[in-house]
Model the fold of this input.
Amino acid sequence: MIWTSLDTWIVVAAVLAGATCALIGSFLVLKKVSMMGDAISHAVLPGIAVAFILTGSRAGPVMLLGAALVGVLTAVLVQLIHRHARLEEGASMGVVFTVLFAIGLILIEQAARNVDIHPEHVLFGAVELVPLHVVSLGGWDVPRGVVLLAVMLVINVVLVVLFFKELRLATFDPELATALGINATAVHYVLMVLVAMTTVAAFEVVGSILVVAMLIVPGAIAWLLTRRLLPFLIVSVAVSVVAAVVGHIAAITVPPLFGYADTSTSGSMATVLGLFFFLAMLFAPEQGLVARAWGTARLRLSIGTQDALGLLARAAEKPENRDASLSAAEFRGVSRSPFAGRRLRLAAALGLLRARGLVAARGGRYRATERGAEQGRAVLRSHRLWERFFYDDGKVDLGELHTAADVLEHFTDSGLQHELAERFAGISTDPRGNRIPGETTNPDANRPLEDRALDDGSQKPRP
Done:
């Protein structure tokens, strides 16, 4: 790979485009109007064409002004059609942006065909050509697109910093913002103007189609990784910057490995963003598929351990079971399924209980230790209190009590268990006449399952 000054300017332009789009696009994701970015990025095309026709100039301010006007027009038209034609908002966006986009293509093709504003570049971008169009700044030749993107990034950053509180309130709770004297509608239209101007500023880099990826995908990645606004914006911008750098490097290094010439940097950037989103979807700490699958496995294993302790507590109540022990085959509530998954879960649950010192094994039989017996009685107490509740207050048939109580017993903390006990004060048995165990003095025995889990310290605190 041979790196030149042209590559440097290409990366700088790509980084500025990605950061500018990601910062303002994050609010579209948070407001759940992501497709408005798609609509505006296409609809501003006639504004660009008309601005050029009227002025004969491709100067940044002219294009930004035309984009801003059409951006507001797009937002207004979408709301009007949504309200008066009674179309759902997505359909309203589709009507507006497709019509305006078609008009823009016609205007560019017919009125600007003899100048360097090619429809293909408007659609797909030409970041590789950005270094060819320069302006002089203090004796330095700087690409015009870099200057325009830098100005747009500064505008976005300044407005977000100055109106951070207003944007946050209008984004998350427009009604509260209005009640506090903040015009949420005006904030929405200002945001649409910024989206339109950002879209135009990024045209030369990624075009009107791929700019949608720059607006939405970084915010979608941040959505999976954090729930706080400031970290959300930082993650979104950081992801877009990394994708811009990696995207260009991949564009000039990966195709030659397969015998091809280099490829489009803007397309490679969008592809890298898609890869980043896929990785975030898989490995996000709380919402990723792997984390959720692991959480589900942990939950099932925790339920298995509590079921096993509950069964041992029931075994201890039987006079004929002198040592209060059970064989693996007698754990019916945990191992009644013939499938291997349930048997493996039983083995894992019993192994975990032994490792935690709650169960001891001898001669192929399992017996609860003193701590395990206490936790087993706590599970049994919750179960029988719920059975009493469903039977007395819910009028549930006797044969259906176990299923209902079997779920809730695992999510009952000491406070809720105490409330149930007070509700049935003076009643010492469940509807079948089985004794309800007394309240344990060990606070850990009554912690809810989602808090205790496997006690491995791996749970991430919520923001």
Notes: The chain is about 70% helix and 5% strand. The radius of gyration is 32 Å. Residues 229-257 form the longest helix (29 residues).
